[in-house]
C-alpha cells in the first residue's frame, strides 16, 4: 500500500487564529459575528446543514476549518439563478459542490420513476428543495457567480458519475459529469485526504489546472502527459470480436507497446477473447501506467462494450494496485487517478473528533429534519464494505478496505451524545456503518490485500485470507453498555449474517443485548439465479443464522424476530424465481408491508447488467450468455406482486401470471397453494388483510411485517418501526371485545381503520 501524508501533518493555514465556529456560517451576518471578511472555501450542498459527522458537508467543513481555513455553507440554494450562490461573497480558494448525502435523482424519484412526496434531508421533509442532478446544476451556478473561482465536485452523486455512465432516468449513457458541470476537479470516494491537499496547494498559490497528481481525483485533459505508458482496456480484458482496424488509442510515443503483450487463446479462432499477460517494462511502473477505456461515443452505442468498461473499472478500485484510467469524450479525455488511500484509525478518530455541534443549524428554528432524527443518537464506527453486492454502490464510493475508529473514540462520542444532544433518553439507536459487523475485519496479509483484485471478500464464499474474528466488536458492545447513563445499545445497521455465523459468540452477544425486538438482515432472494448476480450468499446462510438467532433469543428469554429484506426485478431474476420466493415467504408466514424493486444506480455492477444484458462479473464477450433483465412495467409489477402475495389487490395479476407459467396448481385455497381462486366479493381488502396481518405484539405474536429496505435506521420507539402500529391494533382489538362483539370503528367493510396516534 502506498504511503500517504497524514491529515494532521499539514501546517495550519493563517486563519487558524480564528476559534472554531459554533456553526459554519450560512450568512454574511454570521461571518461578521465571527470577525470574517470573506470565506476561503464555500461548500454548496443539497442537504439541510446539520453539524453532525453523518453529514458530508459537516465533515468536510469541520476538517477544513481544523486545517486553518474559513469555511462557509450554502445549503439548498435556489438554483434558478446565481443570486443565492453569492450570498457569502467570493470564496478566496474554491467552491466545494455536492448534491448531498444521497444522489439527487434517487432522492427525488422512486424505482418506478415516480416523484417522491418527501425529502428526508430537508426541514419539514419537504420535497423539491434541490434540482435534478444537483451537482451539475450547482456547479454551473457557481461558475455563473464567479467564473474565475475553481469548482471542486464531491459527494456520492459526483463520485458515481465520474465516468461515462448509464442513466436510468433517461435510459441512456450519459457523459462524465465533469463534461457537463463545468467543474475544474472532481474528488471521488471519501475525499478527506484529497480535499485537504487541494486546499493547501491552492492556498500555496498553485493553479487548479496543475493539480493532476492527487489520488481520488478526476479532471479533464487533452493528451496523456510525457512519461506515461498507455494500455488499451480491450488488451487487458478483450470483449470479444472487435473491428480489425488500427487502434485509435495507441499512444504514438510508445509504438513498441505491442511487443510488451503476449496473448493466449485458441489459435484457430482469431476473434476469440484472449486473456493477456502484461510483461514488465524495464522503465515503467504501475504508478506511470494508464488504462484507456472505450470512449463515451463507443459506450453510448455498444452495450457490450459498456459492460466491458464497467468490469475493467471495478478491477481498478483497490488502492494497493489500481492504475489510472482515461476515457475519451469527443476531443477531450476524462482522467481518473487511482482511488484514495484509506484513512488510518488515528485519522478516523481525528475526523470524528472535530468540534461538531451535533444538531441542525439554528437557522431552521428547530424544524424537524427527518434524516437527522434517524441518526442523532447513532454512532458510525467504521467505513467501507468488502461485500461487493452488485446492486449497491457503497464499495464503489467508500472502497472495500474497512476503515475503523478506535474504541476510545467511539465511547467518547457516545458520552458526547449523552451529555450534549437534546432528547437523549439513554438509548443509542445504532453502532454501525455500511454494515453492522465488519468492524476491524480485514485481510490477514497486507501484501495479499494490496495485490487482490477480487470484487468481494465474501463471495462466492468467505475468502480464506479474511479475518472474521468479531472479538473487537464484542468488546466494543460491552464497553458501550457499561457507560454511565446508557440504558440500551441497539444495532440498526444491516447485519452481514454470513460473517456473523462465523462467530457464534458475537451472535449471542447481539441477540442477548442489542436487538430491540426485531433485527433486519438482507438475504435479498432465495434463488441461486438472482443471488449469483447480486454476489449474495445462498439462503442456507440465512437458515444457519436464524437457528442461532432463535436459540440465543430463547436462552435470553426474549421473543425476537428477524426482518429479512428482498429485492424484486433484479437482473438475473426470472418470473419462476419470484414465484419460488413467494412460496418461501408463505411457508415462513412472512407478509411484506412494503417491497423494493431493483433501482439501477449509476456505476453499480448490476446497473451494467441491466443496461447491457451481460454479466461483468465474468469475462464479457459478444457471445456471452444474456442475463435475464426485468424492464417492462408489467413484469416489474408482477415481481413486486409476488413479494406481496398476501395482498388481494395483487391476486388478479398473480392468477394471470401463474396460468401463463403453467402453475395453475398454485391457485386455490389449499395450504400448499399461493393465492385463492376467487376474489373477495366486496372490496374485501381490509377484512382479508386483518386476517393475514401480524398479530398483536406479546406472548402469542406471529411473524412481523417486512418493511422496505431503505438502508436507513428503523423508526419508532427504541428503533422499532412497528411499535405504534401494533399498539394501536392491540387497543382497537381490546375496544372491540369490550363492546360485546360490536365491530370497532374502522372494522366496517369499505372503511380504513383509524390511523395510529
From TrEMBL:
Cofactor binding notes: Binds 1 [4Fe-4S] cluster. The cluster is coordinated with 3 cysteines and an exchangeable S-adenosyl-L-methionine.
PROSITE patterns linked: MTTASE_RADICAL, RADICAL_SAM
Cofactor(s), by name: [4Fe-4S] cluster
Protein name per its UniProtKB record: Radical SAM core domain-containing protein
Highest taxon in the source lineage: Bacteria
Membrane-crossing segments per the record: none
Domain Radical SAM core: 371-647
Amino acid at each position: 500500500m502506498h504511503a500517504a501524508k497524514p491529515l494532521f501533518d499539514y501546517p495550519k493555514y493563517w486563519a487558524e487564529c480564528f476559534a472554531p465556529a459554533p456553526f459554519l456560517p450560512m450568512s454574511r451576518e454570521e461571518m461578521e459575528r465571527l470577525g470574517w471578511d470573506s470565506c476561503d472555501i464555500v461548500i454548496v450542498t443539497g442537504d439541510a446543514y446539520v453539524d453532525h459527522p453523518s453529514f458530508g458537508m459537516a465533515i468536510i467543513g469541520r476538517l477544513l476549518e481544523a486545517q486553518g481555513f474559513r469555511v462557509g455553507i450554502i445549503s439548498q440554494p435556489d438554483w434558478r439563478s446565481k443570486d443565492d450562490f453569492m450570498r457569502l461573497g467570493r470564496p478566496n480558494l474554491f467552491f466545494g459542490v455536492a448534491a448531498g448525502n444521497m444522489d439527487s435523482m434517487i432522492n427525488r424519484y422512486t424505482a418506478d420513476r415516480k416523484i417522491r412526496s418527501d425529502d428526508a434531508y430537508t426541514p419539514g421533509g419537504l420535497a423539491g428543495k434541490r434540482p435534478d442532478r444537483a451537482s451539475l446544476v450547482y456547479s454551473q451556478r457557481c461558475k455563473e457567480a464567479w467564473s474565475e473561482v475553481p469548482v471542486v465536485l464531491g459527494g456520492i452523486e459526483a463520485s458515481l458519475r465520474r465516468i461515462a455512465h448509464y442513466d436510468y432516468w433517461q435510459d441512456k449513457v450519459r457523459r462524465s459529469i465533469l463534461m457537463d458541470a463545468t467543474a475544474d476537479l472532481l474528488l471521488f470516494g471519501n475525499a478527506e485526504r484529497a480535499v485537504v491537499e487541494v486546499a493547501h496547494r491552492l492556498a500555496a498559490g498553485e493553479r487548479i489546472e496543475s493539480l493532476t497528481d492527487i489520488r481520488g481525483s478526476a479532471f479533464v485533459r487533452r493528451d496523456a502527459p510525457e512519461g506515461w505508458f498507455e494500455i488499451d482496456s480491450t488488451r487487458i480484458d478483450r470483449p470479444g470480436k472487435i473491428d480489425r482496424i488500427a487502434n485509435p488509442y495507441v499512444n504514438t510515443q510508445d509504438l513498441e507497446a505491442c511487443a510488451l503483450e503476449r496473448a493466449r487463446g485458441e489459435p484457430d479462432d482469431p476473434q476469440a477473447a484472449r486473456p493477456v499477460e502484461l510483461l514488465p517494462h524495464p522503465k515503467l511502473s504501475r504508478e506511470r501506467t494508464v488504462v484507456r477505456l472505450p470512449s463515451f461515443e463507443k459506450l453510448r452505442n455498444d452495450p457490450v462494450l459498456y459492460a466491458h468498461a464497467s468490469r475493467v473499472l471495478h478491477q481498478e478500485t483497490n488502492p494497493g494496485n489500481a492504475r489510472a484510467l482515461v476515457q475519451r469524450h469527443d476531443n477531450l479525455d476524462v482522467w481518473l487517478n487511482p482511488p484514495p488511500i484509506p484513512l488510518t484509525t488515528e485519522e478516523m478518530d481525528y475526523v470524528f473528533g472535530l468540534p461538531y455541534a451535533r444538531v441542525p443549524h439554528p437557522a431552521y428554528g428547530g424544524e424537524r429534519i427527518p434524516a437527522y432524527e434517524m441518526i442523532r443518537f447513532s454512532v458510525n464506527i467504521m467505513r467501507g464494505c468488502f461485500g461487493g453486492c452488485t446492486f449497491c454502490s457503497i464499495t464503489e464510493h467508500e472502497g472495500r478496505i474497512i476503515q475503523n475508529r478506535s474504541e476510545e473514540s467511539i465511547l467518547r462520542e457516545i458520552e458526547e451524545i449523552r451529555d450534549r444532544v437534546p432528547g437523549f433518553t439513554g438509548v443509542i439507536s445504532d453502532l454501525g456503518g455500511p454494515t453492522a459487523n465488519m468492524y476491524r475485519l480485514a485481510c490477514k496479509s497486507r501484501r495479499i490485500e494490496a495485490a487482490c483484485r477480487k470484487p468481494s471478500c465474501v463471495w462466492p464464499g468467505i475468502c480464506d485470507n479474511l479475518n472474521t474474528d468479531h472479538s473487537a466488536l464484542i468488546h466494543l458492545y460491552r464497553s458501550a453498555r457499561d457507560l454511565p447513563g446508557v440504558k440500551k445499545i441497539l444495532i440498526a445497521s444491516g447485519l452481514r449474517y454470513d460473517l456473523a455465523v462465523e462467530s457464534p459468540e458475537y451472535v449471542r452477544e447481539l441477540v442477548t443485548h442489542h436487538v430491540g425486538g426485531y433485527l433486519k438482515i438482507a438475504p435479498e432472494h432465495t434463488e441461486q439465479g438472482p443471488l449469483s448476480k447480486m454476489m449474495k450468499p445462498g439462503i442456507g446462510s440465512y437458515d444457519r443464522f436464524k437457528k442461532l438467532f432463535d436459540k440465543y433469543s430463547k436462552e435470553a428469554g426474549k421473543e425476537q424476530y428477524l426482518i429479512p429484506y428482498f429485492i424484486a426485478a433484479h437482473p438475473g431474476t426470472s418470473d419462476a424465481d419470484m414465484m419460488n420466493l413467494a412460496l418461501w415467504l408463505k411457508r415462513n408466514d412472512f407478509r411484506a408491508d412494503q417491497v423494493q424493486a431493483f433501482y439501477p444506480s449509476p456505476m453499480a455492477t448490476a446497473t451494467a447488467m441491466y443496461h447491457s444484458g451481460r454479466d461483468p462479473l465474468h469475462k464479457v464477450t459478444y457471445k456471452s450468455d444474456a442475463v435475464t433483465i426485468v424492464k417492462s412495467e408489467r413484469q416489474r409489477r408482477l415481481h413486486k406482486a409476488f413479494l406481496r402475495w398476501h395482498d388481494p389487490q395483487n391476486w388478479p395479476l398473480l392468477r394471470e401470471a401463474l396460468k401463463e407459467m403453467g402453475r395453475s396448481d398454485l391457485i386455490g385455497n389449499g395450504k400448499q397453494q399461493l393465492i385463492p381462486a376467487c376474489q373477495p366479493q366486496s372490496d374485501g381488502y381490509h377484512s382479508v388483510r386483518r386476517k393475514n396481518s401480524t398479530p398483536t405484539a406479546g406472548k402469542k405474536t406471529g411473524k412481523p411485517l417486512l418493511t422496505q429496505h431503505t438502508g436507513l435506521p428503523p423508526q419508532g420507539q427504541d428503533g422499532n418501526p412497528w411499535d405504534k402500529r401494533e399498539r394501536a391494533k392491540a387497543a382497537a382489538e381490546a375496544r372491540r371485545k369490550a363492546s360485546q362483539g360490536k365491530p370497532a370503528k374502522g372494522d366496517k367493510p369499505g372503511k380504513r381503520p383509524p390511523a395510529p396516534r
